[in-house]
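User: Need the bound-state model for 4'-deoxy-4'-aminopyridoxal-5'-phosphate:
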Amino acid sequence: MSFKSPKYLDFITELDQLKSRDQFRSLVSISDKSSKYITIKDKKYLNLSSNDYLGLANDAELLEEFSETVYKDKLFSKLGMSSASSRLLTGNHELYEKLEDELCKLYDREASLVFSSGYHANTGIISAITKKGDLILSDKLNHASIIDGMRLSRADFLRYNHLDYEHLEKLLEINHCKYKSILVISESIFSMDGDRADLKKLVDLKNKYNSILMIDEAHAAGIFGNNGCGICEEDNLIKDIDIIIGTFGKALASVGAYAIFDKTIKEYLINKMRPLIFTTALPALNLCWTLMIIRALPELKSRRQHLSEISDFMRNSLRNNGFVTGGESQIIPVIIGENDKTVKISQRLKDAGIWLLPIRPPTVPDGTSRLRISLSASLQKGDISKIPDIIKGEPI
Ligand code: PMP
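Assistant: Bound-state model below.
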């Protein structure tokens, strides 16, 4: 059927509107990738838009170690490329149990559960553990997967102002007697601003109002804490947070996600969580790689340290050049404001061989279009030192 069919006219109009507002998105094909560079249409770019924060996804030594294991133990033929079923049927390879045991050891907690993605984890957990008569309180800048989880839930939900714990407390105070249970959700490092939640404050509030606290560490797992468990470890609060979410697709260089909690929540989710029950399990070969990364994680301190150093260097040099930036992590926003200006600067960076994509509404609030610099431990200061000049448009 032709795309010009009259029944698609509304879609075409909407797409035209997105184009006129510089908000149109499209997919680009990556033909080659290393820990620093990507190749698109035969041109190589320095990659500043990836979430491979520790630089592990294309690490030659790790890939060599993995391929030797795969070859030596004949893993390809033993494990195959598909689990061909949900975890509840025949997709639950024993590597799931090994990975979950390893996660429990790493966090020193009773239970963990692995999911197909962070999107599955957030939409599934939030909608499973909240019901009609419950309330969800969520930071205003929480990720789309958290918002979608709230939309799927039958509970009421309210959003508190970003990092505004006085506002959160007001909402808890007003509502804690009206609802059966309250779930408070925050990211630890925010995905578009790179700023950090006050987990101690959140734990104090959840204890004061007897609520459940869920923290999404997607952009902190692997990067913060002595063993790489995230901000919950750095702040010494692993045991105080009811549900800790981490994703494998970012610093942990794989795909999938996990949650850390008590055994009762694990059992409840296995029985109630639709995006766990009704989706095909991860391939065992992938679980095998993830397990290798999780076992290596505590030893990656020098990568964490280096990432922190180059992040401070980048943030300071942007500030010294008069840019509006922020955050306390490897995610460094350069707030430009208008969509068209942000797109133009991104194009200028592209011409200079740097892949740094513009982030526009609806991903971020109107008027805050930005370049989201996402650093990786595989970068050196020399790779990124010219970026402020290129953004400014000065000759290099
Ligand atoms: N939570 C946060 C905070 C995220 O930024 C993302 C992905 N960008 C997710 C969850 C979803 O994770 P995944 O990509 O594994 O679906």
